[in-house]
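Annotators were shown the component list below and the corresponding predicted structure, then asked to write short factual statements about the assembly.
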Amino acid sequence: MSNIVEIQSITKKLSKRPVLKDLSLSVPQGSVVGLLGKNGAGKTTLLKCILGFIKVDHGKILTLNEDPWILSDTAKARIGFVPQSFRPYPWLQAGQLIDYTASFYTHWNKALVDRLVKEWGLDLSGKVSVLSEGEMQKLSIILSLGHEPDFLVFDEPVASLDPAARRQFLREILDIVSQRSCTVFFSTHITSDLERIADTVAVLKEGSIDFCGALDDLKDAVKRIRLRTNKNIPVDYVMEGALSQKINVHDALFTVRGFDQKKREALEKEFDTKIEVEDLNLEEIFLEMNR
Amino acid sequence: MNRMIAVFNIYWEHALVRVCVLTVALTMGMVKIAAAFSARVSVWLVEDLLLVWYLALLTLAFMLGIIIKRQITSHQRQLLPGYRSVHILVALGLWVIIALAVACWLESLPLMRGLSLQKAPLAALAVLTFLTTVIVAYCSVRYLFIFIYVSALFAFAHVMDLHDLIVRFPLGYPLLLGLIALFTIMFVGRLWMLREGCFEFGYLFAWPLHRCQEGDSLATSKGIYVEHHMEPYHLTDGLWKKALHWRSVEIDDIKGFGMFILSAVGAFECYVYNSSGTDGFYTKPYENFLLFVMVPFFMSLCFNYRVLAYSGYAHILPVKKEDVILQWGVLLLYSLTVSWFFCVAVFAIVPGFILHLAFVYAPRFWAYVLFCGTFAQVTLWWFIYVAAVEQKPAIAHCLGYLTLVLVLFLKVGSMSASVLVLLLITALMAGMFFSFKAYLQWCGKEVES
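Structure shown to annotators:
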C-alpha cells in the first residue's frame, strides 16, 4: 500500500521555538490516522506543514507524492481540509459560499452536500457572519467533503459540534472511508471519537512522534499493574517501561509501557504474588504518556 | 457556477462595494448632466462632485483591498485548485473596468478641457488608488487605520485644490508613474504568493483575528504578565517599564513596516526637496490643524489597540486596577507624543527647513505646533473619558467637542502667537482635567476583555 503522506525527519521552529523536532511519519492510503497531543505539542503545525501552509526548516514531506509547498492543482483537488476556525467572507450567505467553493472543482457531489445541509439543519440563506461556531464548523466540514477528496485533513473538527452533530460527522467519515479508499488524518482531543473511527494513532509529544501504530497495539502496549505483596516494595523501585508508579510499602500501582507475559512472570516471581493487569482506555493512556 | 462569476460575486455581494460603485457611477452621471447645462454653474458643481468621486474611489480601493486580504488569509488560498489565477484576474479586471469607465466618461465631457483636467493625471490617480488597494491588502489593521486616516486627511487638506492634488504629483512624471504601476503589479504578484510560511506574514500581514488568537500566548511569551508575578510591583518603575516594554513589543512587530515608512518618508522629503513649487500644503502649516491633531491621536490609539484589547486580562492581574489604568495613560501619552513629533517633523518642520520657508523661524509657528500637540492630548483624554461615560452625556460631550474643533479649525490659522500661547496653556489645563476625569471614570468602570 502506498503512502499518502511521507514525512522524513522534519524540524520546524516558530518564533525561534522548536515546535517539530526530527519528526518522521507515514500515513498509508486508506487509513484513518488520529493525531493526539497536548496543547502546544505541534499538532496544528504538523498539519500546516503537510498541507504546505508553512515550510519545514529541515527534512522532507511528500503529500500525495508532491512537495506540499508547491502542490499541483490535481493534488489540491484530492485534498479536503477543515481548520480549527474558518469564517472567510462574513457578508456572503452560506449557500453562496458553497457555490463559490464548488466552482473551483471539476467534480462536486451536490447530492451529498444537499443531504448533509438538510441533515445538519443548516440555513443556506443565512449570512456567514451570523452562523454560530458549531454551524460554521458544520459548513466547513461540508465544504471539505463536497468534492469527494481522497485525502481528508481535519484539525480538531468536532470541537464546536453538539453531540448529535458529532456522532453524525463520525458516521459520515466511517461511511466515506468504507465506500471509497479515502485517507483521513485528523487531530483531536476527544479520545472517544478517535477510538470510534481511527485505526492508527499517532501521539505527538514535545514535537516528536512518541507512538505511531494501530490503536489496538497501543492499548496492548500500555497496561496498569496492581501489585499486592507481603514483601516490602522499595520506595525507589524502578520498573522497566513505567510511565508512572505509586508505591505504598506492600501495595504498588504501575502504568507500564511494553508490558508482556515475560515481564509479568518475572514480577510475580520477584514479589512472590499474583499481580492484576488492567486495560486502559485511550484517554487514560494519553494522560499517562503525557505525565 | 462559473469560477470568474463566483469570485466577482464576493466583491459584488459586499454592501459597501455596491454603495461605492453606485456613488462613482452616479457622480459621473451628475457631472455629465451638470456639464450639459451652464458652464459657469457646472464648474463649481464639478469641483465638489469630483471630490465625492475621488473619496468614493478611495473607499472602493480600501474595500477591494480588504476583500483581497480576506481572500489571501483564507486556507482556501492554498488548497482550492486554480485559486490564484482567477482571483488575480478578477481583481485586475475590476480595475481595468473602472479605469475604462473613467476614460470613457472623460471622453464624453467636453467641459473637462476647460477645467485643466486631463486623462493622464486621472489615469495616474487610478494607478495610485490601485496601489492603495494593494497596500491595504498587505498592511495589518493598525497601519491600515493610519493609512486610511492620512489618505483622507490628504484629500481634505486639498479640498480647495483638488485639481492640484490630481495634477501635481503624476503630471510630468510618466517614468515615475510607470515605476509605480510596475511596483504595484509586482506587489500583486507577491501578494498572491503569500502564505503563513512567508517572512513578512508575521509582521505586515497580521490580521486582528489571527492576532487575537495569538494574543494570550504572545503576551505570555513576551513576559508581560509574568513580570507582575515575579517581582514586587512598584508603581513608578512599572509605569515606564511597561510603557517601554509595550513599545519594544510594537517595534518588534513593525520592523518590516518601519522600513517601509522610513523609505516613504525619505521619498517624500526628496520630493519636497526637488519640488520647485512652494504652493504645496507643507508651505501652509497653519491650514493643517486636523493633520497635526487628529493623526497623532489616531496613531496612538491604533498603535495601542492590542494593549487595550488585553484589558480583560489586566483586570485579573495581582495589581491594583488604578495602577493598570495609570499605565495605559502613560503609554497612550507616550505614543501620542511620538506620533505628534513624527507628524509635525515630516509635514512641516523638515520640509520647512529644506525649502527655507520663513514660517519655521517664526515663534507663532512653534506656538502653533505645540498647541496642536496639546490639543491632540486633550482630544485623547476626552476620547478616553467619553468612552467610559454613559451614552447620553457622551453625545453632549461629542457635540461640544465637535463645535470646539470646528471653531479652532476655522480660526486657529489666523491667530497671533500670544493667543496661541494662551490657548496652549488652556489646552494643557484642559488636558490635565480630562486625564484626571478619564482616570476616575475608568477606575469605576467594569472592564471587559
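Statements collected:
1. Residues 156-163, 206-233 of chain B have pLDDT under 50 and may be disordered.
2. Chain B touches chain A at residues 1-3, 5-7, 9-10, 13-15, 67, 70, 74-76, 78-83, 195-197, 202, 209, 213, 221 (CB under 8 Å).
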